[in-house]
Amino acid sequence: MIRYYRILFAMTIVGVALRLIAPMASGQDGQTQSEATSRKPAAANASAPATPDPTYVIGAQDSLSISVWKEPDLSGVVQVRPDGKVSMPLLNDVQASGLTAMQLSSQLTAGLKKYVADPHVTVVVTAINSRRVYVLGEVTHAGGFTLLPDMTVLQVISDAGGLTQFAHGKKIYVLRQEDGKQVKYPFDYVRVLKGQKPEQNIALKSGDTVVVP
Fold it and tell me: Among the four 27, 122, 127, 151, which has the fewest Cβ within 10 Å?
C-alpha cells in the first residue's frame, strides 16, 4: 500500500512539472518567432515598378516609392519636381532626375548614414510621367501618352484608339527635335500594316509628335 502511494505521489509531481514547463516553452517559442518576424522587412506593401528596366533614368514628374527599412517616417511616395529634385526628411532637396532608381537609392543611403544607423533604402519608379509622346489629328483619342520602352509609331497609334474614318493613313508623319531642328519622318500606315515599309515604323523618343492628317 505504501508503495502504491509513493508511485501516485511521484506521478502527481511529474504532472505538475510538465504543466509548469509547457507555458514557458510556448512563451519562448512565441517570442523567438515574434523577434524573427520583426527583423524581416515588410514586403506586403511593396509598390509595383512602372518599368522592369533597371537602366531607366528618372525624369521630372515621375512618381517614386522611397522605402527606408524600419523608418516609416522617412518612407513614402513622392513626385519628382520640375527642377528634378525630391524632398526627403532630414536630407531636404535631393537630385533625382538623371539617375536610375539604384543610383538614387545609393545616394539616399549615403546621406542618411549621418542620421540613421545602417540605413537600407529602396527606390521604385511607380509611375513614368516624364517620358511622353503625343498623337494629334484624326485618331480616336488624341493627346499625350506615356512612352514605353521600344514603343513604335504603330503602337502609339493603337494606344490612341486607331485612325478615324477621315484619316489619311498614307500621309502620317512624326515630328522630332534633333540638334535644335525639327525633323519630319514619314509614316505610311497602310504599307506598314502590309509589311511593305517596316523601316518607317520607327521607335519613338520622348517628345515626339505623331501627326495624323
Answer: 27
Q: Could you please state the CATH topology (level 3) that the domain comprising 132-212 is classified under.
A: Outer membrane lipoprotein wza fold like (3.10.560)
The C-alpha atoms of residue 95 and residue 166 are separated, in whole angstroms, by: 46
Q: For domain 63-127, give the fold.
A: wza like fold (3.30.1950)
Q: How many CB atoms lie within 10 A of CB 91?
A: 15
Residue pLDDT, tens place only, 173-187: 999 999 999 999 999
When pLDDT is averaged across residues 113-130 and rounded to a whole number, the result is: 93
How far is 79 from 64, CA to CA, in rounded Å?
A: 6
CA 163/CA 135 separation, integer angstroms:
11
**Long-range CB contacts (within 8 A, 24+) of 3-10:** none
Look at residue 107 and tell me whether its pLDDT is greater than 70. yes
Q: How many residues does the chain have?
A: 213
pLDDT at 7: 46
Sorted by where each begins, the domain ranges of the chain are: 1-40, 63-127, 132-212
User: SS3 helix, strand, coil % of the chain, rounded to 5?
Assistant: 35, 25, 40
Which candidate, 85, 91, 41, places its Cα nearest to that of 61? 85
- Cα distance between residue 128 and residue 48, in whole Å: 12
State residue 53's pLDDT score: 83
Burial of 103: CB neighbours in 10 Å, binned 0-12, 13-18, 19+: middle
Q: What is the residue whose three cell numbers read 525624369? A: 59
Using DSSP, state whether 203 is helix, strand or coil. strand
